Structures are given as C-alpha cells and as structure tokens.
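pinned: reference chain
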Amino acid sequence: MRAVFALTCLLAVVVGFVLGRAAWTDGDRTAENIARHRHTVTATTVSETTYRTGDQPSSRPVPVATASWRYPSQRLHTETVPVPAGTRNGDTVRVWVDADGRAATAPPSRADIVLDALGVGAGALSGIVLVGGCLVAVRLRIVDARSARSWESEWAGVEPLWAGRLRPEQGAGDD
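pinned: its structure tokens
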C-alpha cells in the first residue's frame, strides 16, 4: 500500500505540474490576445469621486468617477470608470479601452497568471493525493476487517482450550 500511495503522490506531482504549466501557457496567451485589443488612454474626470460597491458582498467599495476621453479618431467617450482614491474633478487618469473606445478592464497581470497557474497545479496535486489517500484508507479498512474476522474464527477454536473450558460438543470425560 505504501508503494501505491508513493506512486499516487508521484503521479499527482506530474499531473499538477502539467496542468499548472498548461494554465500558465493558456493564461499568458489570453493576456497577450487581450492586450493586443486594448489600449490605455488619458482621460479627464468630469465629476468627483464616489464609491461603488464591489462585485462581491465582502469586497471593498471601489472609487469611481465619470471621465471623458477621445479614442479612436478623436471620438468623445464619457463613462464612469474606476479611479484612484482621492481623484478630484479635472484630474487626469489612465483608462483601459477596447478597440471601440469603450472602457474595459486591464489585461490579466503576470501575477494574476502565476497565481492562477499555481492554483490549478496545487488543486490538481491536492485532489489526486486526497483521492489516493482515501482509496488506500478504504483498502486498509477492508484488510483490517478481514484480519479481524480471521482472528475471531481462530480464537473461537483456541480460546476454550486456552481458558480450560469445555467446548459445547465435548463431554465430561473427553480430552
């Protein structure tokens, strides 16, 4: 069972590495593709900073302001965009925009890609080791149960002799 579990752990490391590497490559390719179609422009805020609730209930409020910029071909756009805290009316901020000039999110950073790849690799490794450990534990329980049943049947034959008691089929003069 130790050898099986050791092989399972080795398999988990290999699969975790391969899946993490694939997630890294895919994430890097996706980020490059997104970066090709997004640009940063300088925008001027036309309102004071307000706060919008985050995407999730436990996330912090995000500072936003209405800003305007020109892209592409000097076409004017005005949208509410995330800004640094403390941004005032008339300040300039950098805004990521898509090919049509609409506000967009920034491409995933190198840190985001690395964390995603590590999460995929570690998740695969953990999952395989957990499943392998559970299978080994189940197998050991089966072996233990068989061993206990075997011991009980052997003990049933030895215990009366060992304890000096008569077995049900023995008579007073039988030895």
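why pinned: Helices lie at 2-37, 110-163. The chain has two helices and five strands.
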